[in-house]
Amino acid sequence: MATLRLRDRDAIVTKENLVFRVLGYWHPSDAYFCDVEYAPERIFVSDNPKAFRKGEPGVFYKFYEDEGWRFLHNRFPRYLILHEMLQKKVVGVDHLNISEVRKPGTVLEKLVCCEPKDELLTAVQDVVEKTTQHSGLSIADFGVFGSLLHGFYNPEFSDIDLVVYGKKKVEAICETLEELYRSNSSSFRNEFETMKSVAQKKWRFRNFTPKEYVRHQQRKQIYALFDSRDGRRIKTEFEPVKDWKEVKNEYSRGSRISQKGWTRMLARLTEDNDALFIPSVYGIAPMQILDGEREALEATRIISYVEEFRGQARRDETVVVEGNLEKVTTPERSFYQITLTYCPRYYEQVLKVPDLLS
User: Fold this and answer.
1) Fold identical between 104-244 and 256-352?
2) What residue spans define the domains of the chain?
3) H or E segment at 169?
4) Residue 3 above 70 pLDDT?
5) From the DSSP assignment, how many helices (H) and strands (E) are in the chain?
6) CA angle 8–303–97, rounded 5-degree value
7) What is the pLDDT of residues 237-287, one digit of tens each?
8) pLDDT per position as a tens digit, 120-140
9) Are 306 and 281 in contact (CB under 8 A)?
10) Burial zone of 196 (CB within 10 Å; 0-12 exposed, 13-18 middle, 19+ buried)
11) pTM of whole model > 0.90?
12) pLDDT of 290-316, one tens digit each?
């Protein structure tokens, strides 16, 4: 497995049938940093009604919030690997522990080329056909993730989760979706067209209101509702993933990341090329510290692993950002960044355009 090449949203299956999702593009040479997504019922059972999955591979349960971390810590600590730059353990899989990989593009090709066996697969084919026709993209530019990738989706309830590969292709699909949303004859609507999208959502972010969330999500275009032939309105996501030629690995065992404290500040975005990917990277020019260390005025970028803050702002916009100030030291240079990620103060984090609602 030493030459195995994976990227964000690719899936790893271990010999225990634990299913992991590769996170981002920055990894050591002998392992992948991941998020554990599903476990078979013989080793994990959840009482969360949303967690149950059943299909050809059998019964699985999905992990939510920190369930996966606690499960691995207690049962499978070998899947907590040292992140040498951070000097702490994170979820990951060594190449030697990989039993199988599942590629979103490969699976989608099979799903769209075969006679659909249920309403959801019919809808998947319809979504791909309509978006490729309108955008000029091809099936090869897409993939599928989530329960569809693993074969334990529910035809009556599961969403459609698609991957779009490459920045230019993502821009094309966003333009296409924006046009489709405006057409009354289209089967597509913006999921965040109204506040209904958060009506049943338990809101936990402290510095980011539901109204702000909906407005930011709305303009990203990648979150759709698709009206299927059988009358179901299906949540459909178009997840941006980098093309291979766009991937650059910033992980270095000779570098260190040190925590400098909690920071809240105003900044102007100077770069947004990687804003829609995970991790989302934003170049910034700090403007004013609202709370925290003065070193934050030297920060040159924001790094976000939080999906809510993916594609959150655009170049030249002024943002409020709150999160961990870090100093990155490499053999060549050192710089400061503000990082939004899983941490004890997760729901205090924010990245938003303060005047977007005005």
Assistant:
1) no
2) 11-102, 104-244, 256-352
3) helix 167-182
4) no
5) 6, 19
6) 35
7) 999 999 999 999 999 989 999 999 999 999 999 999 999 999 999 999 999
8) 999 999 999 999 999 999 999
9) no
10) exposed
11) yes
12) 999 899 999 999 999 999 999 999 999
Q: Which residues fall within 8 angstroms of residue 199, CB to CB, at 6 or more apart?
A: none
| Top-tier CATH class for 104-244 | alpha beta
**Which tens digits make up the pLDDT trace of 170-226?**
999 999 999 999 998 999 999 999 999 999 888 999 999 999 999 999 999 999 999
CATH 2.40.50 holds for 256-352:
yes
Amino acid at 104: P
Report the Cα 57 to chain-centroid distance in Å: 24
For 76, counting Cβ atoms within 10 Å of its Cβ (0-12 exposed, 13-18 middle, 19+ buried), the class is middle
Q: Alpha-carbon distance 21 to 102, whole Å? A: 10
Residues near 328 by Cβ (< 8 Å), separated by ≥ 6?
A: 85, 255, 256, 257, 334, 335, 336, 337
Environment class of 254 (CB within 10 Å of its CB; exposed 0-12, middle 13-18, buried 19+)? exposed
Is 344 in contact with 299 (CB distance < 8 Å)? Answer: no
pLDDT tens-digit readout, 97-108:
999 999 999 999
Cβ-contact 22, 10 below 8 angstroms: yes
Question: How far, in Å, CA of 217 to CA of 313, rounded?
Answer: 10
Tokens of 175: 């333009």
Handedness of CA 8, 172, 191, 276 (dihedral sign): positive
Task: Say how far apart CA 282 and CA 263 lie, in whole Å.
Answer: 16
Amino acid at 7: R
The amino acid occupying position 238 is F
The answer to whether the beta carbons of residues 151 and 57 sit under 8 Å apart is: yes
Question: Which residue do the tokens 């925290």 mark?
Answer: 292
Helix (H), strand (E), coil (C) string for 48-90: CCCCEEEECCEEEEECCCCHHHHHHHHHCHHHEEEECCCCEEE
Rounded Cα gap, residues 296 and 289, in angstroms: 7
Q: How far is CA 229 from CA 51, 123, 183, 236, 245, in A?
A: 27, 7, 18, 15, 37
pLDDT greater than 60 at residue 2 = no
